[in-house]
Amino acid sequence: MGSLQVRAIHPGFGAEVSGLEPKVPLADDTIAQLRHLFDEKGLLVFRDIDADLRFQTYLSLLLIGEDPLANPDQSLDSPSARRELLVSNREEGGNAPVGRLLYHSDYMWRDDVFRLLSLYGLKVEQPTSPTMFVSAAHGWETLPDELRARVEGLYAIHGQNASYDVRSGGDADVLLPKFADEETIRLPIAFRHPRTGQTLLYVTPQFTQRIDGLSDADSEALLGELFDHLYRPDVEVQHLWRERDLVMWDNIALQHARPNITYEGPARTLRKTFAPPPGANASKRPEFTTVGA
């Protein structure tokens, strides 16, 4: 099917794809192959590809099953889809320009959580800071039986105002995002993915506030055990950035993080897209401070 070449990145998730011609529209068989890969692997990496914002947005929507050419006024060519968000330590107004990010899924406290995120390398100087990924689906599949039995039936509360600082491990460079609106959601720790049906270990150090029904001490202790399992070094994928890299991942099934970035360090400017694009009622971009600020 198609002419794409696929190389597995990790036994649990992720694939590097070559042979994709970045054009709009893509052939039906190519779309089918890419959608299958995305649902199966959760993380797709395209190296050395000329992807403009329109193609990046187009492919992002395709991978979650939408037809971005069906109604251009509402998807591919809408103002929200054309908005360029830069994650950069160089560009003025760059999002999360410096600091370290703990593992998280963007906006996981919302009913309309982003289903896919993507980053494209515009300006990347070496040595670069990676983006790290873990799979919450793989995390649940490999959860020890004893720990699985303790969390089945439990719910977690997720929101923007978790005490990130107590999970920073004393690292003053950990970023503390602050959103204008306080929102929370209560979801099963064994959360079923709305598209693939996979069961996910749905907790993160950045946005999970507590386990519902447990004392603060018991909640944090149990979350600590889950985090120790989720973020084992052997299950982490690190993407080492180069210019013209396009990286796309399932924001529900996967979590991402990054090491510390400084203004003085190598330039790192990545163009970010969301699928579906943020609506008019989406939370505003957060303000960032650090634990040591």
What is the compact description of this entry?
By secondary structure, the chain is α+β, with helices and mostly antiparallel strands.
What fraction of the residues are assigned to beta strands by DSSP? Answer: 25-35%
Portion of residues in helices?
Answer: 10-25%
Query: Distance N terminus to C terminus?
Result: 53 Å
Provide the residue-averaged pLDDT: 90
The main sheet comes to: 7 strands, mixed
Shape: globular
Number of strands: 18
Describe the strand arrangement of the main beta sheet, using strand numbers: 1-2-3-15-6-17-4
Order of helices and strands: EEHEHHEEEEHHEEEEEEHEEEEE
Question: Secondary-structure blueprint of this entry?
Answer:
Blueprint: E1 5-8, E2 15-18, H1 28-41, E3 43-46, H2 53-63, H3 79-82, E4 85-88, E5 101-104, E6 116-124, E7 131-135, H4 136-141, H5 145-151, E8 155-159, E9 175-178, E10 184-188, E11 190-192, E12 199-201, E13 208-211, H6 216-230, E14 237-239, E15 246-250, E16 254-258, E17 268-275, E18 287-290
Parallel strand pairs: 2-3
Antiparallel strand pairs: 1-2, 3-15, 4-17, 5-16, 6-15, 6-17, 7-14, 7-16, 8-10, 8-13, 9-18, 11-12
